[in-house]
Design goal:
alpha/beta, nine-stranded mixed sheet, TIM Barrel
Length: about 210
């Protein structure tokens, strides 16, 4: 984490992991594709609807050496990793990416963009939050923009950030899970009128998989 405690992370060679598991991607462009997930603890953004509040305090999670992470990926014969959180860009991810690339593993990340992005990424999912807006430089790097819809103002926010990403960036609106039954029909109507957007659903939750 980018604080005075940074030395405990050995400059990115150790990360506070909530969990690591092999599954399929459940959201947005890569839905249905096999991927190894690591969920990194630590987040100071504080979304009121967050479904992983357990991630907020990095001190509650075990520090894991990145060599162990890559070893576990290779045991599963996985070829893609998705790094999520929490907010993974709180940490130096350069050592992790370097090690993954040395082992021909594709690197995907999901981030709010609130902090500087480190590492070499094959796919960047930008999921911006109004209370901690992204760094300007990440907009042009994003491969997909995924905006969580919780209330009416989130549509305004979605349009605002969509103006900043590159022309090839995929645009997704995703209903907040606790209100998906209510919000999905509303988002469907929005997408019918605003065709640059697509709907992302949390397919893994419907499938009852991690």
């Amino acid at each position: 984490m980018k604080t005075k405690e940074n030395d405990i992370f050995d400059d990115g060679h150790k990360l506070p992991l909530i969990d690591q598991f092999y599954t399929v991607q459940g959201e947005a462009f890569h839905t249905g594709r096999a991927a190894y997930f690591i969920r990194i603890g630590g987040c100071d953004i504080g979304c009121r609807w967050c479904d992983t509040k357990i991630s907020w305090n990095f001190n509650t999670h075990k520090l894991v050496d990145i060599e162990e992470v890559v070893s576990n990926i290779k045991k599963e014969n996985a070829d893609t990793i998705v790094v999520t959180g929490g907010e993974p860009t709180l940490y130096n991810l350069e050592p992790l990416c370097n090690l993954l690339k040395q082992n021909s593993i594709k690197t995907h990340i999901e981030t709010s963009g609130a902090y500087k992005l480190t590492g070499n990424w094959d796919w960047i999912c930008l999921s911006p939050k109004k209370q901690s807006p992204p760094k300007e430089e990440i907009y042009k790097l994003a491969n997909e923009l995924k905006v969580i819809i919780f209330d009416e103002d989130d549509y305004r926010w979605a349009e605002e950030v969509a103006e900043k990403v590159n022309k090839d960036c995929k645009l997704y609106l995703q209903p907040e899970w606790s209100k998906h039954n209510l919000l999905t029909p509303e988002i469907v109507e929005y997408v019918k009128k605003n065709k640059k957007w697509q709907i992302s659903i949390q397919a893994h939750k419907f499938m009852k998989i991690p």
